[in-house]
Predict the structure.
Amino acid sequence: MSKVRSQLSLIVVLMSLGIFFLLPMGAAFEYSIRNGLEGGYSFKNYLWAIREEDFVYYALRSFWLSSLTVVITLMVLVPLLTWIHVTKPRVQGWIDGLSLLPLVIPVVAFAVGAQLALPDVVKNTVLELPFLYFILSLPYAYRALDIGLRAIPLKTLVEAARSSGANWRRTITTVIVPITRTAVLATVALTFALSLGEYTLTVLLHWDTFPTWVTFVAQENLLGAIAISMMTLIIPFLLLAAISLLTPSSKNER
Amino acid sequence: MSQNYLKVKGLSKKFGNVVALNNFSLEVARGELVTLLGPSGCGKTTALRLVAGLERQDSGTIFLESRDLTLIPAHHRNMGMVFQAYSLFPNLTVAENVAFGLQMRKVDRSARIKKAHELLDLVGLDSQSARFPHQLSGGQQQRVALARALAFEPEILLLDEPLSALDAQVRSNLREEIRRLQLSLGTTTLFVTHDQEEAMSISDRVGVMNEGRLEQIDTPDDLYNHPKNVFIANFVGLMNQVSGTKTGKSVSVFGANLKVKNEVVTDGRVLVYIRPEFVELECTESDADAKVISRLFLGSVSQVICQLNDGTIVHSLLSSRMSAEFAPGIRVKIRVNEDEVLVSNG
């Protein structure tokens, strides 16, 4: 009886979550295929979006900026967190707190302050965006990775690798990243999705990326802008699907 | 045996205000198995980790023959290590785990797979080479860890309590296996444990540590029979502590006058340290020193536990045949069959 009840509770929770996430998306999709004042449904908004001359340019621009953000995040966070967990466990609390700062610092203050701290090579070029996106996504990326590193006997594994002859770089690439691949992929997905959709900071710094372009074209064709947004949802979905496929289930866990 | 292969001199290490290692020195000969034994927190694991390069010493030097390892990072020291916790890489198969050290040394794939199978064969696990660590028992995992640590032919094998997470039977088998492998491969080994039986049974020499210092390093026989101080006498093996009276260089206990080994103790009431095998019992009704309270049958020998009139417990180790007459309640006279004893102020 209790088993049936718990299964029912699970179904109710899953259905509620499904409605919570799918209903807005379904509504957005329905909106995106409307024919406007003519009435009826078609994919003409999608065709309009694809035919827009700047669509590919801004989509690719945001894609490589987000990819660069992911690379910076992984190159900074994975070695740093591994090193802190292994050698300076006492400072974890401080790092934990520091990682939350991007959530509490107003974006205007952050944009000006962080920009000043950037190296001259990237300052005032579009390459400053990945560094700033990295900081903005830090609270989420840090936690996703931290959970993964806490779930394994990190210190012992690192020491086993080092005493077997692996330097820090090889320890991280051949041992830590493969073992924590679920956490690493979650970090990748979160960072990529957050960077891809970042708007406020980009506008404040007077750069144009895909989200700012969508806002611009929305003034001309609102339904077309929604169609574009629907298309951009596919990328995070593909990432999440990749994580699900690459995450070992309890049955086939290696 | 020339003891100048591994030379550790004056190592000190503090963690905050806690002194983990205090002027620790040690020399190990090539092919020797030396165990560091001591209570929790005595610094034995810190000493091992400093030798491995996993911690940086505050002062002191580490030499391997003429090579100064003091500032060399762990991955360049060529020392294999087996840890207390299971440390196999969960994403690699058993064979890949064993071959890991060779892969880091850029040995070609076919050679490292061949070597991994050789090592797995040595530890009796070649049939498990395609499995993943979580499919093995704890004992098997530690065997694989041992194979991994030996695969790249380390100059020193470091064992940090590798048996402590295993059950008694597996522990006993694996420690014999470690000794067999160490002797057959001739690998110089530094072993850390808090288990006396483990230390005494497989080591060429045992170093007893206390409060960050090496108190004594000797063969298991010498350590047991000739402890240099009261701490070692108490820590290694079972030791009786009975009250006696010291006068000059002798001490009176159970009516006998015995020579005092350590002379820094003042005259008067002292504690006398006597091994159970040197305590002899004689049944008597008059003039008894103690009463038998129990007898533990241990096979060929038995331990007879007596209580002195002042309440002190004394253990006597006798052959089981001889101990049969000492049933609980029997009153006994005690004789000490030893010429020289350690004493301390009581």
